[in-house]
Amino acid sequence: MSHLDDELLTDPRDALLEIYNEEGDVSAEFLDQIDRAIEQEDSAFLREQMGNRHESEIGDVLESLDPTSRQSLVRLLGADFDLTALTEVDEAVRLDIINSLPNEQIATAISALDSDDAVYILEDLDDEEREDILAKLPFTERIRLSRSLDYPESSAGRRMQTEFVAVPPYWTVGQTIDYMREDDNLPHSFSQIFVVDPTFRLLGAVDLDQILRTKRQTKIETIMRETNHPIDAELDQEEAAQVFEQYDLLSAAVVDSNGRLVGVLTIDDVVDVIHEEADEDIKRMGGVGDEELSDNVVSAVRSRFGWLLINLGTAFLSASVIGLFDESISKMIALAVLMPIVASMGGNAGTQTMTVTVRALATRDLDIYNAARIIRREAGVGLFNGFAFAILIAIAAGLWFNNPQLGGVVAAAMVINMFVAAMAGILIPLLLQRAGADPAISSSVFVTTTTDVIGFFSFLGIATWWFNI
Amino acid sequence: MSHLDDELLTDPRDALLEIYNEEGDVSAEFLDQIDRAIEQEDSAFLREQMGNRHESEIGDVLESLDPTSRQSLVRLLGADFDLTALTEVDEAVRLDIINSLPNEQIATAISALDSDDAVYILEDLDDEEREDILAKLPFTERIRLSRSLDYPESSAGRRMQTEFVAVPPYWTVGQTIDYMREDDNLPHSFSQIFVVDPTFRLLGAVDLDQILRTKRQTKIETIMRETNHPIDAELDQEEAAQVFEQYDLLSAAVVDSNGRLVGVLTIDDVVDVIHEEADEDIKRMGGVGDEELSDNVVSAVRSRFGWLLINLGTAFLSASVIGLFDESISKMIALAVLMPIVASMGGNAGTQTMTVTVRALATRDLDIYNAARIIRREAGVGLFNGFAFAILIAIAAGLWFNNPQLGGVVAAAMVINMFVAAMAGILIPLLLQRAGADPAISSSVFVTTTTDVIGFFSFLGIATWWFNI
Question: Are residues A107 and A190 in the same domain?
Fold first, then answer.
């Protein structure tokens, strides 16, 4: 789309160099020029190139620079550095930059931000630094931000913007438009205005397109929507995002426990929340914690060690099942060769079912009405795939070891393990969810342990019984 | 938030029963009442309860009903059934309902929809049925929808809404507002208006809040933004979503190859795209294709069989590595017991690294600037975890088999496999991406095959060499 910009529009940012290459990454040429300017301390060039860019572009550049150049860039930009860019970078990069700036400069920059961006930056700081910066802010600004920061982490109150337009119900459309034309303290952008009573209790909302298509003399109360899904400030951001998605909202009023309007939650923050949640689910299922790409070795080890330790424990459990059959294996080495195949197929089939289940639970598509049907379906899939792969493995193993009976034994174990895998893949996440645990975090270890243990036990057990060893 | 609705606002939908229970699922009581009304063919009750609900609520009810009741409900609602609800349900449910309705009724209902919703429903139908429905639509409506349907699947042109407000640059704010007050054909809702030349080439856009805060006599061209990231209609929806996210857009102009305005893409469609993409990534990493929860056994088997077949092949590859060492195993059965632990730890560590890498590639956080740093980090994590778990497994295995030398051998294999796992976990997705393949689909099989093969080979190989068997 960027080449369309160039063709169609006389871009006011014509002096700006192209920042992205064709893959959408920050281009090497651009980064070279910035690096050279930083080396030569050429603030004028840096201000020209970085001063008026969109915050996400500045964020991309910051993430592409090494830590020393990053701090130099921010220092050279001085007051022209748009602190909003810090909402677009990893936590590690953000803290790195914040810690390199004097608190006075941060306070000045913070007071120019929308309150939601300011809170996003402040909430990650340690208590002392945050208090120091807040103390340097003008009184009203400090109160405003403190109120947001008092709400729990990841709540709607933390993500909301405290700047909004609210009018009384008896105003006319004309009065409302005149008010907006005169007031210099409007939010940077907004898509609806709220209607409140004298105590600021929320009465309703009006979308801007509704105002524009209504005659001046019409009263606001006659065009306001009363059901506008107000969000409780204490509500978790993930649940707030679900309300936005379900009702296709662009923005929603945030109210305190007395029903008083305290802020507005906008769709752009909600898009970030949706991303974070998808990220979290993917990472949890992969056995990595709240890790970010900019984390160093120590943080990465910390986020992964626990999971591997649990896996070591369950691996010993599976190994001890093998240990039960050491005599059988010593008499028929082919068992040792084939046993990982049965376990691995079960693990993969179980992971497939579990992936579908965990995702459906996260998106609330799986509930008590369809759970029985999905369990039946998974049983069907498990049995079908079990028999199909039993035939394949029976032929392959029978030929390999020139032992048709061994083929039959491994086939029987395959059917059992694929069926167990399907059941474990759906029942374990459902039970974990019911028990109040996050199925994305813990399902995988339970499912693969089950398929390993059952895989080894069924195969080695049936072989021991059949061959009477 | 729903209890806030009740407390604060005099809900115009007071006659409506509460649809959701506390978990946010459709409540059993509500569903019972609907089911009973369907049985008694009580259209009046169903119209009252389902006629004015939000489309997503109707969609949730449809998904909770069994197929027969679902079709009866739609039949009983007749013209009061809001076809938009079909954009909120799984493809299988959607086709099920569409196929139960006569094409005349679909055509009538389609012409009342926003064009993006109409296209969403039409695009999944088979060609013949779609053409038949289109032929029954009024001319302008048919042209409008055909134009969207001519754009490639999953393109911005398919997702756009063809209803929008466009004005010439020389109009004043006052003229624009008057035009909106008079025109009855405005879109259902909109958050910006576009500025076009007489040939409909896009010149710029103005947000509604900008119009409301500007005096009537001001010309539109003086307040329009020129850089508004127009989206090429042929652009893939995923890339369009990335533009929205990067620049926090609420809506964006969609232009054809001549720069002419053909539609508008709105954030609510983009939110759906973001969800679909996250869904796809999660499912691909879990080895399930484009599967939906409503798929039956046959579709589910089809989406999973291929992946399991590949896994069967790679499992035989790993097994053949074990087969190389059958003599060593027959002389020391403990090797068969311990070998899955080494392979399993490698598999999990590799999956961790791969998860972080695949996700970072999907969100474009990983690029040529930080790849070297991340590879170094993963090497560090692999070595650290390798040595840490080597010590643990050396002690555990040494004690279990009362053989400290065996502990040493398994420890050495653990260090090697954990390091290989880390490298495979990052290099394989990077290489696949470079080769133009989707790393989310194919990384997992390559990574776990690598860790299985290296795990078995290093452990059994070192043991054979050390114990000289």
Answer: no
Look-up of token digits 């940012």: A13
The DSSP 8-state label assigned to residue B176 in this structure reads H
Number of compact structural domains in chain A: 3
Among the partner residues B226, B232, B338, nearest to A9 by beta-carbon distance = B226
Among A396-410, B228-242, B322-336, the least confident range = B228-242
Q: If you compute the radius of gyration of chain A from its CA atoms, what whole number of angstroms results? A: 30
The DSSP H or E segment spanning B232 is: strand B231-232
Q: Final residue of a domain: which of A101, A125, A155?
A: A155
B212 and A209 within 8 Å at the Cβ level: the answer is no
Q: What is the pLDDT of residues A148-192, one digit of tens each?
A: 999 998 899 999 999 899 999 999 999 999 998 888 778 888 888
Q: What are phi and psi of B317, to 5 degrees?
A: -60, -50
Domain that holds residue A334: 297-466
* Residue A1 falls inside a structural domain: no
Position A1 scores a pLDDT of 38
B:367-396 residues touching chain A, CB 8 A cutoff: 367-370, 374, 377-378, 380-381, 384-385, 388-389, 392-393, 396
Residue at A7 is within a domain: no
B312 touches chain A (CB under 8 A): yes
Nearest Cα residue in chain A from B366: A293
Output the pLDDT for position B168. Answer: 95
The neighbouring-strand residues paired with B266 are B251
CB contact under 8 A, B369 and A64: yes
A247 touches B at CB < 8 Å: yes
pLDDT band at A14 (very low <50, low <70, confident <90, very high): low
* B-interface mutation test, from A293, A299, A302, A385, most B Cβ less than 10 A away: A293
In angstroms, what separates the C-alpha of B128 from chain A's closest C-alpha? Answer: 31
Dihedral sign of CA atoms A252, A254, A257, A258 in order: negative
* Most confident segment among A13-22, B61-70, B84-93, B394-403: B394-403
SS3 A349: helix
